[in-house]
Amino acid sequence: MILRPAKKMLLNSGDDGTRFIMLVVVMMSVLSTLAVGGALTLAHLRSTWVDAVAGHITIEIPASDGQGLVRSPDTLHEKATAAYAALSSTPGVTRVDILDRRDVEKLVSPWLGEAVSTNDMPLPVLIGVTLSAPNDEALTQSIRSKVSAIDPPSIVETHQSWLADLRRFSLILLLAAGGMATITIACCIVAVAGAVAARLSEHQNDIDLLHVMGATDAYIGQEFVDSVVRSVGGAAVIGTVLGLIFIKIGAAVAGEIQNAMLPAMAWKMADNLWFLILPALVTLLCYFAARFTVLRSLGTMP
Amino acid sequence: MNNAPVLHVSALTRVYEQAENKLHVLNGVSFTLAAGEMVALMGQSGSGKSTLLQCVGLLDTPTSGTIEITGRPAQSMDDGERTALRRESIGFVYQAHHLLPEFSALENVMLPMMIAGQSRAQAAERAMKMLEAMGLAPRAEHRPARLSGGEQQRVSIARALANRPKLLLADEPTGNLDPDTAEHVYRMLEAIVRKTGVAMLMATHNPDLAARMDRTLRLKGGLIT
Ligand SMILES: Nc1ncnc2c1ncn2[C@@H]1O[C@H](COP(=O)(O)OP(=O)(O)OP(=O)(O)O)[C@@H](O)[C@H]1O
Ligand SMILES: [Mg+2]
User: Does the predicted TM-score (pTM) go above 0.90?
Assistant: First the structure.
């Protein structure tokens, strides 16, 4: 072990100050871990939702024709059968399902209530189409023209506007989570730089004396920075681990609630890298902040 | 062998600029110090003794003039070279408060050696020997706050000599001590100069001490008179 005057200054005197900074870094790391965890979960949900919708097209063969005349169930059935045949033989279409009158009744009855009989109600026929590749514009276009050739009033719904809304909404949430992580990390940096500056001015006399003894700015600075990196690094790791524990607890609680809207909280293996990168990033940024502060203050010292 | 004098100062000036007015503290100071010489630096308070010592010790940059230490001109060096020259060739003893409070006496003496790159073991061994020579062996593990003024000053001297400097600069090293302790510290410095051949420049207000040294430089109006 070598004698490290600056380290001793930094850690021995004003132990409360060091503990305070460690605490700030721990708390900020917990917050940024939660933010990143939230962002990852959200990104996961987003792609799950998008995948669930993106490869699907719904075709509605309306109950009435373009002029508002109600068409007979037989006519609708005939159109649906023709559309089914045409779509089934289209390359790139993996599945076609016709939701006939009974299925559609089942779909709409919860909204109408028991009292209302759907028997005489003009109901459309719905056709669900699953594509092998989502977002295949050419295929979508060819389906549109085929359907319109069979039955001009039919509507081909690709859920694009709903998807766009989902994308926009989840992007805003992602940006918010990212912003939160950034701000907490920035808080860390500011706190560490401030603590280093305070400690330096507290030890102005000692630093002057080290200069007298022939220590260079680099030598003094390096010792301060080394000890900052050690304490901040430790605190960042502790904070990240705590944050992960909170996330695990949160996931367990969410699992109990069993919200059908939320698929598993799990993220991919590769996403775990974030939780290695996070403390390393905090430490690295604090290292540069400390280094900058130290060298700048030493440079301005007489 | 290097035949250059330990210290050669020529036409040294130091002007402090404060807002509008300029304070000319040193106005062209020249002198030479040979190895083994013990020289007093006298002058009224504010005459610039400390300023001159800071410049000569390469801690302050003179406005103009040259300083050569063992023949090496400091004004043409960059910061790193000046720091290295100070580390290798110059020791400082101040009036007071110049030990690191969080380190033991032994560690304070070890520091300059460790900064110069020696191993902890080497530094500890030499530091202990130096403290023994100063009669401070039993105090080695004590922090400065638990040492008397005279003891602290002896630790400072040991630290100043740790890297075997060629030049020892002392700024009123006995100024804060009672007469007996001051005498003790002075004798110790004298013995060190005589034994090691270090050149010493000591700022002092004490004419009796000055009279006992090899010669006296008097600062007045920024010049040596
Ligand atoms: N950093 C500085 N900025 C401006 N003026 C300074 C600075 N350092 C010293 N001075 C001025 O330079 C003059 C010389 O100061 P210096 O400390 O060298 O005197 P001194 O001879 O050591 O005095 P003393 O015997 O009281 O120690 C003083 O007038 C002082 O106010
Ligand atoms: Mg002075």
Answer: no
